[in-house]
Amino acid sequence: MGVYTFVFNMLFLACEALLLRRVTALQALQIPATLVFSACIDLALDLIPTQYGGPYPMSLLYLAAGCLVMALGISQEVMADVIMLPGEAFVCALSRAWGREFGNVKVCFDSSLTLAAALIALLAFHKLNGVREGTLVSALAVGQLVRFYTRRLGGLRVLWLGPDGTKRSEIAE
Q1: For residue 171, with 0-12 CB atoms within 10 Å meaning exposed, 13-18 middle and 19 or more buried, which class applies?
Q2: Fewest C-beta in 10 Å: which of 14, 27, 47, 74?
């Protein structure tokens, strides 16, 4: 799973570079960040017992907790505006290019990926293999939760970026 995550994130990085028509050092740093992230996915899958097929209420609890924690992490990643994982960086570039709020673009992006995964599963396996209601809930909820957190934690953005939205590192330059 980590290898697939890495490959798809490199695709998102390429899409981001095409959209922005440039490659920066900050974008290049997304590669080692994605390597670490992908390795952590494989480690977590080895260490944490899955609940697939387990009690449905527990699965819903894990889904809710996962969405809440993931959205909090993504909102902090985006508000800090430093090294992002390529998926979020691409969504951020799209939201800036389209003049739309990050959370709303994230919902569209995640929903598109979910739809693509469902179509691929149907074509390859003739069933929704690996795509279930949790995938759909996550695709629809995480972006909106990012919006919620970003609005509630906006004061942190001022601390990280300064009152005028300029990165503190840019002020020093």
Answers
A1: exposed
A2: 47
Q: Residue 146 in contact with residue 159, Cβ under 8 Å?
A: no
Distance CA 39, CA 2 (A): 6
Number of domains in the chain: 1
Q: Span 109-124, mean pLDDT?
A: 95
Match 């494989």 to its residue by tokens: 42
| DSSP character at residue 166 | -
- d(CA 162, CA 147) in angstroms, rounded, equals 20
- The closest alpha carbon to 135, from 119, 148, 149, belongs to 119
| pLDDT of residue 158 exceeding 70 | no
In this structure, which amino acid lies at residue 83? I
Is residue 149 within 8 Å of 72, Cβ to Cβ? yes
**Given a cut of 50, is residue 38 above it in pLDDT?**
yes
pTM of the model: 0.81
3-state secondary structure of 56: helix
State yes or no: pLDDT of 171 exceeds 70.
no
Q: Residue 50 gets which letter from DSSP?
A: P
Q: How confident is the model at residue 159 (pLDDT cuts 50, 70, 90)?
A: low
Cα–Cα distance, 13 to 28 (Å, whole number): 9
